[in-house]
Amino acid sequence: MAGTDQPDQDAIAAQWEASLDSEDPAEAAKAAAENELSETMALQWAAMVEDGSRDLGAGKNSGERVLSQEEIDNLLGFAVGDVTLDDHSGIRAIIDSAMVSYERLPMLEIVFDRLVRLLTTSLRNFTSDNVEVSLDRITSVRFGDYMNSIPLPAVLTVFKAEEWDNFGMAVVDSSLIYSMIDVLLGGRRGSSQLRIEGRPYTTIETELVKRLVEVVMADAEQAFRPLSPVTFTIDRLETNPRFAAISRPANAAILVRLRIDMEDRGGNIELLLPYATIEPIRGVLLQMFMGEKFAATRSGKAISPPRSCRPRSPSTPCSTKPTFRSSN
Predict the structure, then answer these.
(1) CB 259 within 8 A of CB 268
(2) Which CATH class is domain 104-285?
(3) Of 24 and 116, which is predicted with more confidence?
(4) pTM, 2 dp
(5) Cβ atoms of residues 174 and 154 within 8 Å
């Protein structure tokens, strides 16, 4: 086999040499030039493809960076499915910018500060215990967002403002309910709060919560009395937020959170007043302080309120017109 392979290879080599000798030198040079041109073009194409891929990669890294979920949440101002009542930013701030802020109603803060002082005294008499009431915050919320954020179980008390012909809501959380029941029924101090999930409140618990809300409503009437006499009457008590709808979900409302502490126990009670409810006294709430209508100035002269005076004689009674005093 090795002997037969050797002659065949010699014969093939001889045939290649004969074919190369028989070719025209010009044609051979032309074929070599064409091969060289093809190789040059192939190299150019390879360089162009490599440069293009490098530029594309640089563009992706610089201008087309994919945002993370945290960056998207920061841009929007809120996470998807996350409902919060704190200050917002981003697109959420733009959406809520049309909502009236309570800071434009300065008298509200004075009213609720007065409510805190009255409620501290009333709850001490109600529980015969050392009770501290503090104003946690006053903020503006959308009614629907707040109803979706209420931690359950809780008791939602719908009340009506008779003179304003509209409704409000008081929400007592579970912690305050069980703390108040423990205090009123003679529970020992220092005991851990019992929280039973998945059961409705009993008749006794509901009645005690109703008495607590009645105390809060009576003090709220006194707090609003210097501005506008109003009577708050309890309409119903609910445990399901669906049955306590008093406004449209997109409507704005004022949320007031009061913190009630009884030594090592306590909880929160929240008052929700839709803007439609306080609309009848909006002009009064816009005042910077009580009696601002007497502090108006005109042409550099201060207008003072009418003063009581003694008439000099029966024929010259005291004038009830406001007196003008020069600023000089």
Answers:
(1) yes
(2) alpha beta
(3) 116
(4) 0.59
(5) yes
